[in-house]
Amino acid sequence: MAKQRLPEETLAMDPRTDRAPLPIYPGNMPLGNPVEPPGEPERTDLRPRVNRAAVRRKISPFNIMIMLIAAAIAIVLYISNIIAVNQLLHDVNALENEHRQVLMEQEILRARINRLASLERIQDKALELGLQNLREPPVWLSIDPERLRAVERETGRND
Question: What's the rounded Cα separation, in Å, for the pair 148 and 145?
Fold first, then answer.
């Protein structure tokens, strides 16, 4: 059997001796039919390849409008929240003032009740009306039941 000749692309220099080329076999193709790897076309210039400068993608006007609308909505919600909080603080302040006013009126009424219910005032009013303090202890009255029935018959009352 004749020895097959390998194409030049599949030969590499032996790094140990730098003399004899060694065959490179990728393992997925037969040795007799070399297949060219897909890739770049052959370049005629021998300059090293330089990458292109990265081109920054422009932001589309649609994306800009969406971002502006979202920002506007966020700002409107934030401002409406601030307004609502201020209104609630105003309401709370008004209710606290009203509560303080009611407590003050309640204290005034308690003081008035204490003044009107004082013993000195009651004694002064009793004297103005002609009432006097008892000098003797009260006496218990006893009612005769027969006499009570007789009085009821005379007056026509039956209680």
Answer: 5
Measured distance CA(143)–CA(149) in Å, rounded = 11
SS3 23: strand
pLDDT, one tens digit per residue, over 62-81 is 999 999 999 999 999 999 99
* Residue-range domain boundaries for the chain: 62-131
**Torsion sign over Cα 142, 146, 148, 154:** negative
Contacts (Cβ under 8 Å, ≥6 apart) of 20: 13, 14
N-to-C CA span, the chain: 152
Q: Tell me the pTM.
A: 0.42
